[in-house]
Amino acid sequence: MTAKATTSATFEQDVLQADGPVLVDFWAEWCGPCRMVAPVLDQIQTEHPDKITVLKLNVDENPDLAMKYQITSIPAMKVFHGGEVKTTIIGAKPKFALEQDLAAYLA
What we know:
alpha/beta, 5 helices, redox-active center, Thioredoxin
């Protein structure tokens, strides 16, 4: 299972109304570090499908959400739970570091 995409049209339902925690990966096609972190996020999604949902949001195609959530550099990952941002992670990190940042949701 790999991370699915969300858009401005589906964000409310996919993220804000989701039952459990949702990690949104704010990324762009031209962003090298974004491409580096994508397979790591796919692995986390595959290994913890019942604990966290990983979604990707292309900032070039959805600038309204990038502005709303103050995305000034990418990759930026935000964990939403109960419709609110609970955790923000900036920059590409190795898997173990991302898992440490997400430990509260993966336990």
